[in-house]
Amino acid sequence: MITATSALIFTVLTGMVIIFQACLAAGLPWGAASMGGKFPGRYPVKMRFTALFNILLLLIFIAIVVTRAGMTGPVPSVPYPQILIWIVVVFSLMGTVLNIITPSRIERIWAPVALGQFVTSLLVALG
Hints:
By secondary structure, the protein is an all-alpha fold. Helix content is 68%, strand content 0%.
């Protein structure tokens, strides 16, 4: 039960980040809340492609977590979820640390989201 709930929470939190990245890719002027605030305002074109890549990576992370939790359903399952989940855990831990220490004050709003992703992915990994 805790594994499935954790996977669901991870999916919702990651979905929030995906929506934010999509907004950055679409040109919304929220760059100060990402990448340490290096690109305040609208992302330059190269960074918009980076945001699209981030979306793809996050979707893969959701597939890994959901597969590891045994809840694939409409999400395609991934091979070796018991190994790949640890990549998600480490990535989520790094995201938590980076969002806490970022020089961009507004970007720190993502720290609780990243922490939630870390905790829930860890629970799925251990489940």
